[in-house]
Amino acid sequence: MAMAALTSSSSSAITLLNKPFLPNRSSFFSSNSHSTLLRFSASASVRPRFPSAAISTVAPESDINKNETPKIKIEETQVFACPVCYEPLLRKGPSGINLQAIYRSGFKCGQCNKTYSSKDEYLDLTVTADLDDYNEVKPITTELFRSPLVSFLYERGWRQAFKRSGFPGPDEEFRMAEEYFKESEGGILVDVSCGSGLFSRKFAKSGKYSGVIALDYSENMLRQCKEFIKNDDTFDNSTNIAVVRADVSRLPFPSGSVDAVHAGAALHCWPSPTNAIAEICRVLRSGGVFVGTTFLRYSPSTPWIIRPFQSRILQSYNYLMQDEIKDVCTSCGLTDYEDYIQDSFIMFTARKP
């Protein structure tokens, strides 16, 4: 806050990935009997107890009557929605939550007619996607991590320095988060403000989720994430991980479609923690779990006499205290709040009732 070396038999797949896939806007969803058109709905899930959104497509009855081989019915967990109106997106292309399938797919909102596509490294699902003239500038706490330099350094020294404030380290933080996510295994996990994908990759490697979505607003962080995946021999084109650009205060998922949300060392960077947590609550299914970590404004051992000065120095960031985090979570509709504190580090969790 990048994939294994392929054999010669995979060379055709690489060639396909490097070719532009999407047609122009006007012809994006033109009538074509040979195209597979997928529409997201909320009718099925990867496991019955997870009501995540699903997609399906079957051969038209006319095809079957012509004794042609019917198209295989596709039904698997998908959660993408338009960030403008939250209408589930239409998808044209191969199914699946993996880098190759996402790159070769085009997405369109049937209500506001806006299209979305991958930009080589990530799928852009921001409201400002593909705008020609307007470039939205966020507060400095967000813009800092859009920097190419900070994005490059994040896993090369920046994140390691968090230990000075009590962070246990990525491996232990991942283990702790996994304990809270046990009931969400088999479902969709969204790693919001994922940065360079440090935890997204760990969740995907665990094999415990039907899909992991690495989501961040920073283009350069997502490029780093893709690069780490590409250079990791344990990943291949079928690994269920997608790299998505989106705003945490405007998450591109239908309501009640996500099983778990993780936000590692993120809350203090959000322009509005209340808006972000309200969005997280919206997209979580009933029983879905939210786990986050952040820096406290000051640790329990910070002398009271310097606390006001420390608060002023850090006022550019939204460093909250334990009771404030609990208050925000509960006011946004989450329940069963728990937390763990070590120095200035806090890991907190809550679930949607």
Overview of the molecule:
By secondary structure, the chain is of the alpha/beta class. The chain is 26% helix and 20% strand. It has an 8-stranded mixed sheet, with helices on both faces. A hairpin with a 5-residue loop joins strand 5 and strand 6. The radius of gyration is 21 Å and the shape is globular. The chain starts with 10 loop residues before the first helix and ends with a strand. Its main location: plastid.
Gist of the model:
This protein has 353 residues and is an alpha/beta fold. It has eleven helices and 14 strands.
How do the helices and strands line up, and which of them pair or pack?
Elements: H1 11-17, E1 37-41, E2 54-56, H2 61-65, E3 76-77, E4 89-92, H3 99-103, E5 106-109, E6 115-116, E7 123-124, H4 140-143, H5 148-158, H6 170-180, E8 188-191, H7 198-206, E9 211-216, H8 219-230, E10 241-245, E11 258-263, H9 273-283, E12 284-295, H10 307-313, H11 322-331, E13 335-342, E14 345-351
Parallel strand pairs: 7-10, 8-9, 8-11, 9-10, 11-12
Antiparallel strand pairs: 1-2, 1-4, 2-3, 4-5, 5-6, 12-14, 13-14
Keywords: Chloroplast, Methyltransferase, Plastid, Transferase, Transit peptide
GO molecular function, one term: S-adenosylmethionine-dependent methyltransferase activity
Protein name: S-adenosyl-L-methionine-dependent methyltransferase
- Strand arrangement in the largest pleated sheet: 7-10-9-8-11-12-14-13
- Total number of strands: 14
Strand content: 15-25%
Name the shape in a single word.
globular
Rounded mean pLDDT score: 81
Distance between the termini: 29 Å
Series of H and E elements: HEEHEEHEEEHHHEHEHEEHEHHEE
Question: How much helix, percentage-wise, in residues?
Answer: 25-40%
The structure class reads alpha/beta
Number of helices: 11
Radius of gyration based on Cα positions: 21 Å
Largest sheet: 8 strands, mixed
Model regions low in confidence, pLDDT < 50 over at least 5 residues: 1-77
Main location: plastid
GO molecular function, one term: S-adenosylmethionine-dependent methyltransferase activity
Organism: Arabidopsis thaliana x Arabidopsis arenosa
Subcellular location: Plastid, Chloroplast, Plastoglobule
